[in-house]
Specification:
The complex is a heterodimer of chains A (314) and B (54). Chain A is an all-alpha fold. Chain A has two domains: 154 residues, UbiA prenyltransferase (Tetracycline Repressor, domain 2, Orthogonal Bundle); 126 residues, Four Helix Bundle (Hemerythrin (Met), subunit A), CATH 1.20.120. Helix content of chain A is 78%, strand content 0%. Chain A has 15 helices and no strands. In chain A, helix 6 packs antiparallel against helix 7. Chain B is mainly alpha-helical. Chain B is built from one helix and no strands. Chain B starts with a helix and ends in a 9-residue tail after the last helix. Classes of the chains: A mainly alpha (314), B mainly alpha (54).
Chain lengths: 314, 54
């Protein structure tokens, strides 16, 4: 783990900033933001009741910026370990383009404005959920769990799973069973997704003393856990269809992809735990992203279809 | 002109460009923020925005 001296060196190196706006955009973790936006749109579109299209766009924008702000706060806190990991060494802070203090200020300002605007324009329940998400990701996950327990991403996954609940709450002003099911899908998806990554990036995490599951209990136990979570995830993924708020297309897509998810987890389970190339783990990681996008994408398309059809028919 | 000075000038030029780009980004963000609040007010209140006790 890097020392305080290294952290102050990171600040000094950018005493006169040459950071471009794109560096600040990178602090928002745009790829994570895409997932957040996508799942929040699903929650917003599936929720019963109308919401003015302009207000819907503002709600999504606030959720996206709030999620981005928590990403900036995460990069502020994790700058020391980011610098030592190949996957994150080129991020704006370890790359010397943005100082830690600037990232902290950026994250705090965006957090404040995203929550306040969501509260004033939409409702305070969704704003409260967004504030909780930012707090949970930045404080509970980044500052506490990540470096303390191998179950870090299991509990921390809650932060990534809340966006569809916020989207739902923006429309209805409440949290319902349907939105909790959407939460559960992402919550159960997170462990196999991240542990697949942790399997082939175990060296990185080991080097910075982050207790990811493979470093603590070994690859074999991690492979077992991945399979167990995948078997639990597949039926939960079908729940929106069974509960009636996902249509027939969703039932087919979620059922087929759920089985494919188990298949990939099974191949990952069969992999020799000393395998150095970890191809099945990489395939599972890639497939898991496709899985989540396909499920929520189908829900969005199904929810949008009647509106699109009526627009054409008049 | 020494190569050190050329290097320093280039670095200064780069910093100025970055600062200008950041200024533009902040200006655009502020403008977007104003537009968002303006549009949100109309979307929430519509014509009622003018309906207030005098």
């Amino acid at each position: 783990m890097a020392s305080e001296t290294n952290l102050s060196a990171m600040n000094e190196r950018v005493a006169v900033s040459s950071a471009m706006p794109s560096d600040y955009y990178e602090l928002l973790k745009p790829r994570v933001m895409q997932l957040v936006v996508f799942t929040a749109i699903a929650g917003l579109m599936l929720a019963p009741g109308p919401l003015h299209p302009v207000l819907s766009i503002i709600a999504i924008l606030c959720i996206a910026i709030g999620a981005g702000a928590s990403g900036a706060l995460n990069m502020w806190y994790d700058a020391d370990i980011d610098a030592a990991m190949s996957r994150t060494a080129k991020r704006p802070i370890p790359g010397g383009r943005v100082s830690r203090d600037e990232a902290l200020a950026f994250g705090l300002v965006l957090s404040f404005f995203s929550v306040i605007v969501l509260g004033l324009v939409i409702n305070w329940l969704s704003a409260g959920l967004l504030a909780f998400t930012i707090f949970f990701y930045a404080v509970i996950y980044s500052m506490w769990l990540k470096r303390a327990t191998p179950q870090n991403i299991v509990v921390g996954g809650a932060a990534g799973a809340i966006p569809p609940v916020i989207g739902w709450a923006a429309v209805t002003g409440s949290v319902s069973l349907e939105s909790i099911v959407l939460f559960a899908i992402i919550f159960m998806w997170t462990p196999p997704h991240f542990w697949a990554l942790a399997l082939f990036k175990a060296g990185d995490y080991e080097r910075v003393n982050v207790p990811m599951l493979p470093n603590v209990v070994g690859n074999r136990a991690t492979q077992n856990q991945i399979l167990a979570y995948s078997i639990l995830l597949a039926p939960i993924g079908v729940l929106p269809f069974l509960m009636g708020f996902g249509g027939f297309a969703y039932g087919v897509v979620s059922g087929a992809l759920g089985l494919a998810f188990i298949y990939h987890a099974w191949k990952c389970w069969q992999m020799d735990s000393k395998d150095e190339r970890m191809v099945p783990a990489k395939k599972l990681f890639g497939f898991s992203i496709l899985y989540l996008f396909a499920l929520f994408g189908t829900l969005i398309i199904e929810a949008a279809t009647p509106a699109i059809a009526s627009a054409f028919v008049g | 002109m020494s190569s050190e000075q050329v290097h320093e000038d280039n670095a200064e030029e780069k910093r100025r460009k970055a600062q200008r780009a950041r200024n533009i980004a902040i200006a655009l963000s502020l403008a977007a923020f104003v537009v968002i609040l303006y549009v949100a007010t109309w979307a929430k209140l519509g014509a009622n925005v003018l309906n207030r006790p005098l």
